[in-house]
Every structure is written in C-alpha cells, then in structure tokens.
Amino acid sequence: MHTLKTLSLLAVTLVVTATAASAYDGYGRGDRIDRREARQAERIREGRESGQLTRWEARRLWYEQRRIHQLERWAKRDGHISREEARRIEHAQDAASRHIRREKHDRQSAW
Question: pTM of this prediction?
C-alpha cells in the first residue's frame, strides 16, 4: 500500500513537471526578446515625438521591428525558441538598436 502511494505521488509529480516544462519556452528567451522589442518600440516613439526621427526614418525603423517580430513568430511556431533562433533574433535586435541610435543622433530633425 505504501509503495502504491509513493508511485502515485511520483506519477503526479512527473505529470506536473512535464506540463510546466512544455509551457516553458526555453530559458525565458521569448520574454527577454519581447521586453527588448518593447524597449526599442518605445525608443522609436520617443524619437518621433521629440523630433529626433523624421517620418521616413521612423517608418524604416518600424519596418525593421516588424521584420524582427516576424522572425520571433516564426521561431515560436513549434512552441519554444531554440538557442539558435534566439541568437538570430537577438542579432537582428542588436542591429536594430544600432540603427535606432544612429538615426536618432544623425542631426536630422522632423521640423
């Protein structure tokens, strides 16, 4: 009887652990990517509002953000983001961050 309780408890623990693991997208990669995406979007909005970005600069940067978001959606199609997929997305985000900085500080203004 004691063995049966132990086996039942072990089975329940395994099911709970497997369920939690399947909901996990690989070491929080998706959350990190999403937070960075939100910060970059805010930087573009601030640049547009302050006049540091022209309409065309902002449009180009938004297009780049959309492309990165599509990369992320493609990576999540199987339920999680692999290390390689995260590296590819973060590389694109690094480039986008450099582009945002370059465009905000290029001495062109919207007015």
Answer: 0.72
